[in-house]
Amino acid sequence: MERTVFYLLVVFLLMPEPSSLQETEPHGTSQDPWSELKQLRELVQQQAAALSEIKEKLVNMENKNTAQAGELLAVKSELQTAEKQSSYWMKVAFSAGLPSGYKGPFSTEITLIYTKVVTNVGGAYNPHTGVFTAPIKGVYYIRFTGAAYNTDNHNMGINMYKNSQLLLHLGESNRDGHLRHVSSGLVLELEAGDAVYLSPLKPTSPSLR
């Protein structure tokens, strides 16, 4: 009997007391699932707001880049225009004269065609029509000289036109039958495509040279 009691006592001592079992339970309390869901929803809303802000910034950046691209294209176009103008600068010049012999007198006002071309840099003067066409907008200096031999007591006259507008009339009275010269020039502000040409005064102009 004493041996059996001894084992019972040992088993009893190894078993924890009820109070100690309660102390070993976790002290943390489980969170309400609805509260967790609310927190998740608030987090999603915050992230959605942040994403919307990022999208707005991206749109603003795209608009800014588009505007800058447009400005860049405009600057590039202006640069190309300036380069084109500078390429013509100092490259528009011509010198031409009438062929040998006398021309006229003329019964109608015609365009004088200077077929004897010495220089025609830029190709703005047309030796087939006698017309100088401005290739670009700019300021041009155009000068001409004429000589006339009068045997019929006619006066000499030359008109300069821009398109159909009379710019200058230059004349010389000749009553002695000697060779007469006239010379003049104008500084003209021309638009691209403006045409300049000379015409003898009809019908009093003598033979021009």
Automatic annotation (TrEMBL):
<keyword id="KW-0175">Coiled coil</keyword>
<feature type="signal peptide">
    <location>
        <begin position="1"/>
        <end position="21"/>
    </location>
</feature>
<dbReference type="InterPro" id="IPR001073">
    <property type="entry name" value="C1q_dom"/>
</dbReference>
<protein>
    <recommendedName>
        <fullName>C1q domain-containing protein</fullName>
    </recommendedName>
</protein>
<dbReference type="InterPro" id="IPR050822">
    <property type="entry name" value="Cerebellin_Synaptic_Org"/>
</dbReference>
<dbReference type="InterPro" id="IPR008983">
    <property type="entry name" value="Tumour_necrosis_fac-like_dom"/>
</dbReference>
<dbReference type="Pfam" id="PF00386">
    <property type="entry name" value="C1q"/>
</dbReference>
<dbReference type="GO" id="GO:0005576">
    <property type="term" value="C:extracellular region"/>
</dbReference>
<keyword id="KW-0732">Signal</keyword>
<keyword id="KW-0964">Secreted</keyword>
<feature type="coiled-coil region">
    <location>
        <begin position="37"/>
        <end position="71"/>
    </location>
</feature>
<feature type="domain" description="C1q">
    <location>
        <begin position="87"/>
        <end position="209"/>
    </location>
</feature>
